[in-house]
Amino acid sequence: MAIYTCGHTTPDSDSICSAISLAYLLNKIGRDAIPARQGPVSPETQFILDRFGFEAPELKTEFAGEEIFITDYSDKGQAPADIDQATIVGIVDHHKLGDLTTSTPLECWIRPVGCTNTIVKEMYDYHKVEIPANIAGVMLCAILSDTVIFKSPTCTPLDIEVVRELAAIAGVEDFGALGMEMFKVKSAVEGVPVRDLILRDYKPFDMHGSAVGIGQLEVIDLAIFDSVKAELQADLDKLREENNLHTACLILTDIMKEGSEVLVSSADASVFEKAFDVKLEDGKVWLDGCLSRKKQIIPFLEPAFA
């Protein structure tokens, strides 16, 4: 039986690229593996796949009876609906430890670094497997995306070291320029339905019994949202009602200004205000220096629900 390598429900570049890089590694060490994805490919991820000659992994949302090696998450809310009927053989992730449990032993690679692909690179080193140029390319891009070209507080010296090693393998002379190309693609939002924008990089969380949804859009100029910000806020309200959420947030990150405007829809906005010691104005607030949902939003918001 083949092992499926697969990331979270709304896949970002790290989720899809780690499924590809991990599947290749598993196959090289004699474990039959197939990369998969649970959702659509984002424009940035498609740019990466096209750049290095990959097709998108198989779209798969049902895993009952299958073996799965999870990448880039460990929260049950980001897993397939039938994950309890699947066998989780491994987890590779760089987020907080979630609430997935297993009935059998499994392989876990969980490190506090900026990107799952940084950890996958360590797995290649551990197993002494050579990384092909195209695999190195997608891994490199995933790390540049997740670390916001090293600007994110989640970025570690190891991420930077791994990027330099992967760039040499992939033949990428200027990885900073490649990173900016990716973020320009990410910043092209004109004509995209607002719901698609909200869900482009969206993750659900259970925060002490309260359902919370947090999306994030990273762009090189926040002004591109000026004409649609009111629509985004209105649709965020609809999303919260449709999914019976306590709070729904959309983080609009300006990577050049190194900060984020957060749109908030909540049954009780005081929870968000308390978490960040701010006052929302028309359902939004600017958080200077905030680039990371994982490190600068969730660790503050989740305790506020306790």
TrEMBL record:
UniProt catalytic activity: diphosphate + H2O = 2 phosphate + H(+)
TM annotation in the entry: none
Domain of life (superkingdom): Bacteria
InterPro entries on file: DDH_dom, DHH_sf, DHHA2, DHHA2_dom_sf
Gene3D superfamilies membership: DHHA2 domain, inorganic pyrophosphatase (n-terminal core)
Assigned GO CC terms: cytoplasm
Enzyme class: hydrolase
Coiled coil (residue ranges): 222-249
Sequence ranges assigned to domain DHHA2 in this UniProt record: 179-305
EC number(s) on file: 3.6.1.1
GO terms of molecular function: inorganic diphosphate phosphatase activity; metal ion binding
Keywords in alphabetical order: Coiled coil, Hydrolase, Manganese, Metal-binding
Cofactor(s), by name: Mn(2+)
Protein name as it appears in the record: inorganic diphosphatase
Source lineage: Bacteria, Pseudomonadati, Campylobacterota, Epsilonproteobacteria, Campylobacterales
Gene: ppaB
